[in-house]
Amino acid sequence: MPLQINNLKNKAMSNTNISSPPVWTDREKLIFRFFFLFFILQAIPLSVDFFKIVFGFNWFHISYGDIFNLTRLSAKFLPGADSFINWIIVAIIALIGAMVWDKSKYKNINYDRFYYWLRVVVRYRLAIGIIGYGFIKFFPLQAPFPSISNLNTSYGDFTDWKIFSMSLGIVPSYEAFLGAIEILAGLFLFFRKTATIGAAIILVFTGNVFISNLAYEGGEFVYATYLITFALFVLWFDAQRIYNLVSLERPTAPNSFKPLFVGKTKTLRLVLKTVIIFFFVFLYGFKTYSGFHHDPYQFPRTKGLARAAGIYNVSEFRINGRVLPYAAADSIRWKDVVFEKWATISVRSDRKVIVDSANYEQVFKNDKDRDYELAGTAGRHYYSYTVDSVNHVLLLDNKNPHYRGEQLRLNYSRPDSATVILSGTNQHRDSIYVVLNKIDKKYPLKLSRRKALKL
Question: Is the dihedral angle over the CA atoms 127, 128, 132, 138 positive or is it negative?
């Protein structure tokens, strides 16, 4: 492994001749072959999602979500969320490849050159990956301010991960600061002289992300580990020499291999570097800025019923013509209803909710796939809806994948600005009649917390 390679090299160097190039032993070569193949396979997006993502969007009208999904790609042989099983598969392939390489005529290559180019691939892949998350934090998209439904859900009805996400969402300036750090670290990685600084920042920053995911049961700990291993590889190149020089006060050799770019090679290098930085920094940053103002990806974009957003008390509830009085433990009667600004209605009752536990980062274009508002949340059933403004009909679909196919068809009337009357059929085809009265509720999180509050 490169971690051991530099160590072995430094031990082999004489104090009186620190400028002589280190000699690669057979053991070092064997270790390097394995890790060369391992990191190359990890960096190249060998994924079951690759073709779906790359060919699934319009390259002439690309969105920030498309670019983010590209930065998020990693080696994946199994569908679904990231898993360390994919790492085991990559390691097996790398091990077999290293053994074949050892028996081939290419085993005596210039290992210093291969080590240099492997580091280039790893640091560029790491830069792209960390910048992908940096911009959706810098423009606070990843953890948005809680929805009205979330603000009216009991604390105990949230999973640990959802509490963590909303805690970040209520302080967008801090979220933007975290994003700026990630972007800065990514920019450092694009240049050899500052790559070690960028890797050190990422190691500390992403290490905290990894621990947070474990503590709050998040779904990003595998990908966080992916970024950490890449940062360790980049950092070790200089870390061993810095330790020898500063801590052990030993003579330390500088980097013995420097690439020489001339003519067309130099031009090609500059063009490729410019294209990568333009696409993943300038274009992605502009698209993310635009998306923050016009299409935040966590919540649906379709507008809801006009001037209806807010929380409503259920003052009257009838089912099949029978009035149900309020009862805290009633699984049929609704307790309150929330109309979001977008086309989502959430209903609170004592009816059990099977929690949608999707908690790893995904950027969806279609409203039906945007599930942040209900993910990690119990206590409420969330419905997307369409409005027939001519016939005054709402068609509700339960957004939770555990209740797929559950629909309600409701006629609506609005006798005044604070009242909504719903009548129609529920998911069991029972007739229901609901009178909703809007509550003029104040939310301290939306008011100044540095001044006296008037509730």
Answer: positive
Q: Using CA of residue 314, residue 316, residue 321, residue 327, what is the dihedral sign?
A: positive
Q: DSSP of 88-151, one letter per residue?
A: HHHHHHHHHHHHHHHHSTTTTS-HHHHHHHHHHHHHHHHHHHHHHHHHHHHTT-SSPPPPHHHH
Tens-place pLDDT, residues 13-64: 333 334 445 678 888 899 999 999 999 999 987 777 777 777 777 888 899 9
Q: For residues 203 and 232, is the Cβ–Cβ distance under 8 A?
A: yes
Using CA atoms, how far apart are residues 345 and 412, in angstroms rounded to an integer? Answer: 13
Rg (CA), the chain: 28
User: What number of CA atoms fall less than 13 Å from residue 321's CA on the CB side?
Assistant: 0
pLDDT score at 301 = 94
**Rounded-to-integer distance, Cα 1 and Cα 27, Å:** 10
Burial of 328 from C-beta contacts in 10 A (0-12 / 13-18 / 19+): exposed
Length of the chain: 455
Is the CB of residue 244 less than 8 Å from the CB of residue 10?
Answer: yes
Reported pTM? 0.87
Tell me the per-residue pLDDT of 91-139, one tens digit each, with 9 for 90 and over: 999 999 999 998 888 888 888 889 999 999 999 999 999 999 999 999 9
